[in-house]
Amino acid sequence: MEETQPPPQPKLPLCDSLMIWLQTFNTASPCQDVKQLTSGVAMAQVLHQIDAAWFNESWLSRIKEDVGDNWRIKASNVKKVLQGIMSYYHEFLGQQISEALIPDLNQITECSDPVELGRLLQLILGCAINCEKKQEHIQNIMTLEESVQHVVMTAIQELMSKEILSSPPNDAVGELEQQLKRALEELQEALAEKEELRQRCEELDMQVTTLQDEKNSLVSENEMMNEKLDQLDGSFDDPNTVVAKKYFHAQLQLEQLQEENFRLEAAKDDYRVHCEELEKQLIEFQHRNDELTSLAKKKK
Question: Which cell locations does it reside in (predicted)?
Answer without folding.
Answer: Cytoplasm, Cytoskeleton
